[in-house]
Amino acid sequence: MSEALSSPPLLQVDDLIVRYPVKKSLFKARQHVHAVNGVSFHVRRGETLALVGESGCGKTTVGRSIMRLVRPSSGSIRVDGIDIASLSRRELKPYRRKIQMVFQDPYASLNPRMTAGQIIGEPLGNFDIVHGADRENRIIALLEKVGLSRTHLHRYPHEFSGGQRQRLGIARALAVEPSLIVGDEPLSALDVSVQAQIVNLLDHLQQEYGLSYLFIAHDLAVVQQISHRVAVMYLGRIVEIGETADIFRSPIHPYTQALLAAVPLPDPRKRRIIEPLRGEVPSPIAPPSGCAFHPRCALAEDRCRREAPQVQEFRSGHFAACHVMARNNEYAARPSSREHGFARSGKIANS
Questions:
Q1: Beta bridge partner(s), residue 48
Q2: pLDDT at 113
Q3: Residue 198's CATH number
Q4: Same domain, yes or no, for 171 and 201?
Q5: Would you say residue 129 lies in a domain?
Q6: Torsion angle of alpha carbons 73, 79, 84, 85, nearest 10°?
Q7: Strands 212-216 and 312-315
Q8: Domain for residue 9, yes or no?
Q9: How far apart are alpha carbons 255 and 276 in whole angstroms?
Q10: Are residues 182 and 291 in the same domain?
């Protein structure tokens, strides 16, 4: 991982904006849903960056934009230094080998009319990788790599359990030897025990193949276990980003603090007073002026309502966008991750 820190990032996203037009009426001007509003981050080789936030904050849209399943309104998405945001379908094909996706629903993402062997073999044919007997051997090797076997080769998706279907989806993503896998909440539809198995599988594959992951999730316990860095999104913007241990030990942004405080403590003997966020998430069609979080923030000031905060570095590798914290440095006094009910993660970027 130390070598990856000094090398150029595999993925570099700069000022990504995605807006969806809303059908206009006779008396109203055309409006847009501001799904992603100026997101910037990078993913290093061999690194896992987790993208977290409430439902509707734009996490999935970011992932789909990187896959070019959604065309960005503006901004750049650089893969190995090449901006793929504006490439044509023909120009984009070589880069589709480098980035693959594992979807949230392990059943809906698989063709029910295709066997496991056909599902994994389809990308091999699309990119003309292997043929004949070598192709079947490659498919069997991929099945075994994700914990399945050759006996599953001719089974259909409905014959697999949820965890097995997700393993099949991972095998399909691995088939073209990608550098980056985008996981769109790949564990949310699985039982807790199965989640642990898939987390261990992803970690093993990362170590073996040097994969990078963009891990989109809302389960912070899983995020802490699997990620090297965490980016927190709110209403289409990244409000905080840093190494996992720093985020969980000393969250800076009030929204990040609220997310961590909402996670139940695993010890029933421990009690704490949780002050829930007030109000509802604002509409992405008409986002508030200034800081998007100010209508729900107990620390909001007049400046927060007028001026959008810029992301700035509070300490090495830890960035956030908050006027109040930047002035008062209150983040330094936040409780540790253990007081939040989390164990310190063993996966740190420098390890």
A1: 213
A2: 95
A3: 3.40.50.300
A4: no
A5: yes
A6: 0
A7: unpaired
A8: yes
A9: 11
A10: yes
What local confidence, expressed as pLDDT, does residue 6 receive?
A: 58
- Encoded amino acid at 32, one letter: H
C-alpha dist (Å) from residue 332 to 249, 251, 336: 10, 9, 10
The tokens of 36 are what?
A: 């992603």
Rounded distance, CA 129 to CA 314, Å? Answer: 47
Distance CA 145, CA 138 (A): 10
For residue 103, being part of any structural domain is answered with: no
- Check whether residue 44 and residue 140 sit in a common domain: no
Note the helical H segments in the chain: 2-6, 59-66, 89-96, 116-126, 132-145, 162-174, 192-209, 220-226, 244-249, 254-261, 302-306, 323-328
Query: What is the per-residue pLDDT for 336?
Result: 36
Phi and psi at residue 22, to the nearest 5°: -100, 140
At residue 318, φ and ψ (nearest 5 deg) are -120, 115
Quick: pLDDT tens for 74-87. 999 999 999 999 89
On whether both 36 and 92 belong to a single domain, the answer is yes
Contact status, residue 298 vs residue 277, Cβ threshold 8 Å: no
Q: Distances from the Cα of 340 to the Cαs of 88, 248, 268, in angstroms? A: 47, 8, 13
How many domains, the chain?
A: 2
Which tokens in the block code for residue 189?
């539809």
The residues that bridge with 36 in the sheet, in sequence order, are: 18
Q: Residue 10 has which token pair?
A: 């595999």
User: What count of residues does the chain have?
Assistant: 351
Q: Which of 177, 197, 222 is the last residue of a domain?
A: 177
- The answer to whether residues 95 and 101 touch, using CB atoms and an 8 Å cutoff, is no
Sites in the chain below the pLDDT cut of 70: 1-6, 24-29, 272-274, 329-351
Torsion of CA 200, 317, 292, 51, to 10 degrees: -10
- pTM passes above 0.85: yes
Q: Which uninterrupted H or E stretch holds 8?
A: none
Domain of residue 153: give its range. 111-177
Statement to judge: residues 126 and 92 lie in one domain: no
Pick the closest to residue 58 from 104, 16, 102, 9 (CA basis): 16
Q: Are residues 325 and 223 part of one domain?
A: yes
* 73 and 121 belong to one structural domain: no
